[in-house]
Task: structure prediction
Amino acid sequence: MSDEKQQVSRRQFLNYTLTGVGGFMAAGLLISPIRMAIDPVLKGSSGGDLANVGLSVDDITADPQRIDWSVDQVDGWYESEVSRSAWVYKNDNDEIVAFSPVCKHLGCIVSWEGSEQHPNEYFCPCHDGRYYKDGTNVPGTPPLAPLDVYEQEVKDGMLFLGDVIPQGEA
Amino acid sequence: MKWKRSDLQQYVQAKEYIDTILLPLVPIQLSNDEETDKYSAQAEVMSILANGIEKELTGRTMLLPNYNYLKTVDITTEVQRLNNWTVDMQQQPFAHITYITFDSRWKKEEKGLIGNLLWMPAVQTGEIHSKEMQRIIRDQVGQTVELIRSYWN
Result:
């Protein structure tokens, strides 16, 4: 027997093997908790998904119009179709604005010119909350913040809307 | 608002704003096979309708869980039970108690009821989730919302 063949002794061989197998087992045990710990990083962002609301940009005028569409919402294991609505118009700078119709007071659905006494304003039927055309709440009415605005994008001449962005107190 | 913990917590904070109860009256029965189809379908439509109304008027309306009763029972015996429910609700400052139902038998007992009865004919065309049905229900929601609002003024 030559010296080279005896470079790995029986003891060393067993040590290497046990360390290797032990390492694999430890890695196997650790991978689940680690994955779980960094789970939020692995998950793709569910926000920012914009949905085609079926409205052509050319049809948007200076008068707010109500549009309804639905999105698939995944809530844990429960997947459901949620209907959403918005009031869409073009402001004086020719920018498209999409308001959420949910009143900032207690959550009723507001409508454009919903009251004959208050033309050119959004009106909430529940407690007479009012908002100006730019979404700002009319002082002295119950709401304390302007209407939420939808995140938006225009692709191929169609309007896409995403999540609502609160406008903060005014 | 609905009969949920989070909504009720909000209700207790903002009682003065929520003055309307919406209570669906829904009959059930299992003894007759043909009838089960009809009444379960009506219950589904009522659930969509009631939730639609609640969504429009969340900030002023409380949608309660269904008032269920046996279809075969004599409706006059239910009047007292329903009134007992209503008396309990009136412990809170609810100015408008509204019952909503597809069961026309309530209409005859309307005088004996404490709250307002909204009876409407049940419409059923094919699948509940069909486009046609959705359009009809949306229309019914809109008209019912108008009616409830007229009581507020």
